[in-house]
Design brief:
The chain is built from ten helices and eleven strands. By secondary structure, the protein is of the alpha/beta class. The protein has a domain of about 220 residues: NAD(P)-binding Rossmann-like Domain (Rossmann fold, 3-Layer(aba) Sandwich), CATH 3.40.50.720. The strands form three sheets. A six-stranded parallel sheet has the order 2-1-3-4-5-9, sandwiched between helices. Helix 1 links the parallel strand 1 and strand 2. The radius of gyration is 19 Å and the shape is globular. It binds NADP nicotinamide-adenine-dinucleotide phosphate (NAP). NADP nicotinamide-adenine-dinucleotide phosphate binds next to helix 1, helix 4 and strand 6.
Length: about 325
């Protein structure tokens, strides 16, 4: 990409899309293209066709998706598989038809089998059963990866897929019903502090191990991959890359870290009656690291940055 390239960011208002927009601008890319959901519903094929015909973007970051936590995924599986299949199929196909130079498709680590060895390597894809609570979403994302790889093989396109670990950052979703664990805990612990509550209840046993990445580190990794010389991408990679930090914490340690940052001195209680999900999920980002990328923001630093943003918003 050069600084004048016409770059389309699908999902620019979201956690990932807004981080991509901020980082691209900081890196001097100023010819950015976006549409609000109200202007362009990416599940509608004819609308997406008209948009690509009119705008002809050179590069595409596909960060639009229907995303949510365990509760939302297990309650609305039909919406999660339909919306994501439609969004990615429309954008990937139109990108091919309009000669997009490189597209980056965002999936997530839920594509890997529930019992896959840890840390998760890209080659574990489709080697076993998925986590049932978000299987519909995961199947849609796996279809997106295979779609990119199929278009690359048949049409010689240059479509890359990235599997980021759990992300957090500015514009994160703090709605207790639909949020991911980190913003969910931060909102809950902040409210307990403001109300002077003696205890905070945390879902599950507190034992599951998780990995979290600051959204702008992830965005920087995506921009890095969008600019990597095609010849440097290993043939056998299927242009599939994990993005992660290899920094693991238990849900209990995460909650304790958030208590420290928020300044909450009450007691954490754990509710083993609520689902833990997979007991350990950490990525192996060595394929990306081999190309020369490394993240910058530690979990403690990131949580402090997010809390500042939360207090001001
Ligand atoms: N968050 C994570 O921890 C995480 C981890 C790994 C991978 N990812 C991947 O990153 C991508 C983005 O996730 P995110 O966390 O940024 O989600 P998000 O904050 O919910 O953002 C999703 C964006 O997509 C837009 N969108 C949804 N449906 C649309 C439609 N039909 N037409 C047009 N726009 C639509 C939304 O628009 P509105 O703002 O108008 O609703 C929103 O801006 C997803 O592919 C996800 O799999 C996320």
């Amino acid at each position: 990409m050069n600084k004048n390239s016409l770059i389309y960011i699908a999902g620019h208002n979201g956690l990932v899309g807004s981080a991509l927009t901020r980082c691209l601008r900081e890196q001097g890319y100023h010819n950015l293209l976006f549409r609000d959901f109200r202007e362009l519903d990416l599940t509608r094929q004819a609308e997406v066709e008209k948009f690509f015909e009119a705008e002809k973007p050179e590069y595409v970051f596909l960060a639009a998706a229907k995303v949510g936590g365990i509760l939302a995924n297990s309650t609305y599986p039909a919406d999660f598989i339909y919306d994501n299949l439609m969004i990615q199929s429309n954008v990937i196909h139109q990108s091919y038809l309009h000669g997009v130079k490189r597209l980056l498709f965002l999936g997530s680590t839920c594509i890997y089998p529930k019992e896959a060895p840890q840390p998760l390597k890209e080659e574990y894809l489709l080697t076993g059963p998925l986590e049932p609570t978000n299987e519909a979403y995961a199947v849609a994302k796996i279809a997106g990866i295979r779609m990119c790889q199929s278009y690359n093989r048949q049409h010689g396109t240059d479509f890359i897929s990235v599997m980021p670990t759990n992300l957090y950052g500015i514009n994160d979703n703090f709605n207790p019903e639909t949020s991911h664990v980190l913003p969910g805990l931060m909102g809950k612990i902040h409210k307990a502090k403001m109300n002077g509550d003696p205890t905070v209840m945390v879902w599950g046993s507190g034992k599951p191990l998780r990995e979290f990445m600051w959204s702008e580190d992830m965005a920087a990794a995506c921009i890095f991959l969008m600019n990597v010389d095609r010849a440097l991408i290993p043939e056998d990679s299927g242009k599939l890359f994990n993005i992660g930090t290899e920094e693991e914490v238990s849900i209990r340690e995460l909650a304790e870290l958030i208590c420290e940052v928020v300044g909450y001195r009450g007691e954490l209680r754990f509710d083993p009656g609520k689902p833990d999900g997979t007991m350990r999920k950490v990525t192996d980002p060595s394929r990306l690291h081999a190309l020369g990328f490394a993240h910058k923001v530690s979990l403690r630093e990131g949580i402090a940055k997010l809390y500042q943003w939360y207090l001001n918003h």
